[in-house]
Structure formats: structure tokens, C-alpha cells
Predict the 3D structure of the following.
Amino acid sequence: MVRRQRSRIVLALLTGMSAIAQAQLGSATSSSTGTDPQSEVAAHLPSAPGASVARTYAFPDGKQQFHNYLYSAFGPPGFISAAVGAGLEQNKPAPPEWDSGAKGYGERYGSRFGMQIVSQTTAYSLGALLHEDVAYHRCECTGFVPRSAHAVVSTLTAKTRSGQTVFSFPSLVSPYAGSFTAVNAWYPSRYEPADALRIGNMSFVFKAAGNMVGEFLAPRR
């Protein structure tokens, strides 16, 4: 039964990744054949997560959005966010059924990384449907406090095609997609929906940690 559930999760992830690629490539094709001069300029401007937002922001095309997805899910922010989450859960320990040694940390890291993949797949899939750029963009401000505040606020915001920063529904629901998947797929059977909500709430802390990495440590790309 557990193997069937895990197989379904893997299949869902692959389907989600495929949906992102198809949706974004479709948008890239439409932008390249349109007459909007901003779309033509956007193809030649940097739009990686670390690019300058205030001065050179351009809504990413399909190829760039898929690249951003891979970076967010499998790049340094994703790995470090999972490591922070696993370390905090190891200290509790949570779940207590898992070993408190190296094996338990490996399980918790794998669990957090799995939630990270589900969350990012959900965020970028919904972002494609709602025409939102959910990738993290560095702040053009200076100073530790303003840049840190930007990293935290960005856990719930996204960019529109016009470059406006807005509250993001994909950013809000994606952590809970990851936590509910974990509770139903690989957490001990005693865990319930209330636990999934609690874990999803904590995921915002780890997401903010990943943003801090992108803001201060990750090289500009």
C-alpha cells in the first residue's frame, strides 16, 4: 500500500513538472509571435531569480520559468532549506518514531526535500496558470534589515507581468501541498490533517531561510 502511494506521488510530481514545461513553453511561443514590444525586449533581458528586479525586471518566458523552477527545487536554496528543517525536526525529534541518529536525520532530510519538491511544483504550476512569477528576486535595497525583511515578505508574494509585486495565492498554498503530501504518503499513520497544517505553517520558516540564502549567499545568476 505504501509503495503504491509513493508511486502515485512520484507520478504526480512528474506530471506536474511536465505541466510546467508545457504551459511555460506555450507562453514562450505566444510571446515570440505577438506584436507586444515589451515581450520582444523581455527575451533579451536577464530574468533569473537573482537578476535586478527594480531596474531590469522582465517577466520570464517559458524556458526561464522552468529553469527557475529547477533552481528553486533542486538548487542551493532547496537543499539548505531542507537541511534547516531536518535539523530542527531532529532536535525535537519529530516525528519521534524516526531514529534520533544519522539515519533519522537522513529520513527527515529526505522528507523535507520531498515536501520542497511538491511545494515548488505546486507553486510554479499555479503560477503558470495565474501568470505569476513566483521565483525569488533579490532586493534592490541595501542594508541587512531591509534585505532580510524582503526575504521574509517574499514568501507570500510574486511578480505580475507588469512587474508589480502582489500577494500570491500559489505561494500561500504550495507549502501545504507539500505537508499534506508528506502526512499522507510517508509520515507515520498517526499523523492527521491538523498535523499537516502545523507542518505547512512551519514550512514558511524554512522557505524564508531559503530566501535568505538567495538574498545573501547565492551568487547572482
Remarks:
- The chain has one domain: 2-217.
- The beta strands are 157-159, 165-167.
- Residues 76 and 217 are 9 Å apart (CA to CA).
